[in-house]
Every structure is written in C-alpha cells, then in structure tokens.
C-alpha cells in the first residue's frame, strides 16, 4: 500500500458483523480497504475494493454482496460433492442442463427444510448424521445428510429415461449409451452390468 491517509478507527455494526473502512491508494489507484469481523469470530477479514467508498452503507453493500456470492459458490460445491455430480459423464448441453436442474431442485428442497424452524426441528433427530474423513475422524455434523442420501438413492434407482439416449454406430466399433442409473453407480459397481460381459469401454465414450 503506497499511501493510506485514513485509519480504520471507526467501527460499524449491522447484520451481525462489525466493519470499518479506510480510503487508500495502491500504485496510484484509488482503493478502499475494508475490515470485517463477525460476532462469533475473533479473526479479521480484509477486503480491497476499487475506488473510494463514500459511506458506511456502501461499504456494507459491498461486504454483503461478496458473502452472497460466496454462499452461491459454496452451494454449488456442496451439490457437486454430496450428490456426486462429477460421477456423471455427460457431454451434451441438454443432458448437463437436466442434471443440474434436478440437483438444484434437490438442493432447494433441503434449503427450504432448513429455513423452516418447525420442520427442521422435527427432522433433526431422525436425519442427523456425522461426516467422517478417510482417517475416520469426525469432520462436521449436518442434519440433512440422510435426506440427501435418500435423494441420491432415488436417482440411482430411477429406471426411466431422464436424459435423451440414443445408440450410435462408429466405423470401428459399436458404442452403447447407458441410462442415468449406470452413471450414478459407484465405480466398483460399474464393472458389473447385466448382459455386458467383459466388454471394455472407454471413458470418453460413456456419454448421455
């Protein structure tokens, strides 16, 4: 930081966070340094924002906008990990859009349950389950893991056509396009497909 005329000597509180800001210059460019701390956190977060902020209201808007974007990124990360999106090998845009739509719907159901105090209390005891790492150590406790597990089992047991499937012949080989149930199986289960024998399949050909 080249020049920082102001000091963060005034704190504002709003929405469960404490924050302050100072107008600075970085390599000749006007920037604003914002410090943020939550009520339950002892650590301070620092943000550098382009331009000089004129009011505490504007500083809070930029902080809340960042946290909203962070929550969206975390939700996509959770969906990929918990619902096993990366296990589905799809190439077509329509198939990918259908898959994301289904998973987003499931995520929305879980979010609605969590936001309802009465329903969440009723389901807390029956749906509670801990998450462990590879060393069998408790990582976190999320009371809707069993619900998400149930949704995953429903998707894996679905026998209908979720995606648009087709058979296609290449000059050198005949390639079969499996239904969604195949892609949602665990890797060790993929090797045991009824009627397929010991046929070798390339990953690049397993598409919906």
UniProtKB/TrEMBL annotation:
Residues 68-108 form the Transposase IS4-like domain. One of its GO terms (biological process) is DNA transposition. It comes from the Bacteria. The lineage of its organism: Bacteria, Pseudomonadati, Deferribacterota, Deferribacteres, Deferribacterales. Transmembrane segments: none annotated. This is Transposase IS4 family protein. InterPro entries: RNaseH-like_sf (IPR012337), Transposase_11 (IPR002559). It holds the Pfam family DDE_Tnp_1. GO terms for molecular function: DNA binding; transposase activity.
């Amino acid at each position: 930081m080249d020049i920082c005329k102001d000091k963060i000597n005034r704190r504002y509180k709003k929405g469960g966070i404490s924050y302050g800001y100072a107008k600075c210059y970085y390599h000749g460019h006007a920037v604003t340094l914002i410090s943020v701390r939550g009520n339950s956190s002892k650590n301070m977060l620092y943000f550098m924002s382009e331009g000089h902020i004129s009011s505490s209201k504007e500083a809070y808007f930029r902080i809340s906008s960042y946290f909203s974007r962070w929550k969206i990124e975390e939700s996509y990360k959770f969906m990929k990990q918990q619902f096993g999106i990366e296990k589905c090998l799809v190439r077509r845009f329509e198939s990918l859009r259908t898959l994301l739509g289904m998973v987003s719907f499931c995520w929305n159901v879980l979010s609605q349950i969590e936001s309802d105090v009465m329903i969440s209390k009723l389901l807390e005891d029956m749906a509670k389950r801990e998450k462990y790492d590879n060393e069998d150590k408790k990582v976190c406790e999320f009371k809707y893991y069993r619900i998400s597990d149930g949704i995953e089992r429903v998707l894996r047991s679905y026998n209908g056509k979720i995606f648009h499937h087709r058979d296609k012949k290449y000059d050198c080989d005949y390639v079969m396009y499996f239904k969604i149930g195949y892609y949602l199986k665990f890797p060790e289960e993929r090797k045991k497909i009824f009627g397929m024998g010991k046929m070798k399949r390339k990953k690049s050909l397993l598409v919906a």
